[in-house]
Amino acid sequence: MPGDERGVRSVERGSIGEDMSERYFPDGMPPPLADTTTLPWWQAAAEHRLVVQRCADCQATRLPPSPVCAECRSPEFDWKEVSGGGSVYTFTIVHRPIAADQALPFVIAVIALDDSGGIRMISNLVEVECDEVEVGMAVELVWEDMSEELALPRFRPRQS
Amino acid sequence: MSASRAQIVGVGESTYTRWGKIGDITEHALACQAIQRAVEDAGLSMDDVDGLASFAEDRNEAIFLAAELGLPALRFGNMVWMPGGGGGCAAVSNAAMAVETGQAEVVVVYRSLCQGQFYRFGSAGVSTEAPAEPAPPSLQQANSLLLASMGFAMPYGLLMAAAAYALPTRRHMHLYGTTSEQLGMLAVTFREHASRNPRAVMGGRPLSLEDHQASPMIADPHRLFDCCLESDGACAVVVTTPERARDLAKPAVEILASEQGAPKGYGFGPFTNANIADELYATGGCEEMAGRLWAKSGLGPADVDVAQLYDHFTGCVLMQLEDYGFCERGEGGPFIESGALAWEGGSLPTNTHGGSLSEAYIHGLNHVVEGVRSLRGESTSPVEGAEVCLVTSAACVPSSAVLLGKT
Partner of A51 for a Cys bridge, out of A79, A85, B270, B327, CB 3.0 to 4.6 A? Predict the structure, then answer.
């Protein structure tokens, strides 16, 4: 990726090999953009680890990653891996394409993540009928390998 | 009337059209036209103007416009940091601060948009054409804080404003039972107001609730007619001191109070931030700011005779009605259903020009123009005896508002 002069390094995919995930979205979706503050989150994602940033002083969690804890203003932090379980906080069903060859409609949802200290994230619901989506629906994480280098967390209705 | 508060003394605009229809004149030429008309409306000369202010990363920088318009000197050139339309009233507020503190004497606030000459907002600048030489998807460098924040929204296809603002609106529906029909009634009301306004792009296009319900779904719950227009056009307002306003062409309108900002942890709002506090998520994010506006002015929602509320999407207007205290939290839907916003018989005639849903989308600065007209008795949907007008700029993003008073 460009911008190595600012210290952002390529993401190592780890040993995924040829065993790539199912694809839900086309290659032409807008690429993730990262700076050095947010890069570790994407590196964890490339290893199929969904993490939230956690203040090393007051333990408050946050996402997207940021330089300082907004609660206690500490710059010290670590990363907490979460299970990927969660529920739909809100959603929209989009009928206009964002990329070429995209299946429509598609679902954008805000997911309230379990065991995350109350963190939500924007993502997509997949493997779901649009008219079945509702606020409060239990969901689980499914990784989509967009390429050897890039994996994105999506969610589907909880199956267990 | 306060002896020191800034006043608005002139308004002006270009012709408003559908997006992309103004191709034979540049965006900055259109800005010059609107500024000149506003200055002329005030009964001032361009030689009197010593400040320019805009917002929303305006491409038409004040330094160049000052040179093009031959201002004797540019003493104040201001750009607001509230994103997009959220900065409209803030730009007026900053102009007011400038004249009240002697930084400048006559400041023109302007906004010009020719989307066809650049890109259409609704497309979010994204092409759905397959690239000629496809590359494997990869992480890219974010060259700004905004883009690093967008990194947690864009890869999931969250780029269109219609989808972003659907998120808090859907949550509002879940919490309070708000319906698509209630949102539709708001769009129908504003279209009816536009029917009397010759400037309105949609003035000749009546809209019924059935039309709204039959319009294509864009990003559920937003149907086509829940979304504002995309327009080409420019408008401007002239802000000066009360001393200077005294002998000008038309009655001045006083800026009673103004506020701008965002609540704690808000960032860019639901567009990129899934972690807005739960109690703020299904709101316009303006409640705290509204409280400051009322406290500063000594007025309250009951004192407002007419309102011009930023209407990028119907649901965002509904949530503003609650934020500013015109109804209780969760009661925005029934409040709209009661006919409160209608020019004819409504308790709070709102968007008497037709708003961004039906007049034009000039990033909401046209709402300030209409606010002035509604207190001068120049609106095409005049509210008899109106003395106080609330104008807002955006909701569900950092936003701003001004309270205008008749002098």
Answer: A79
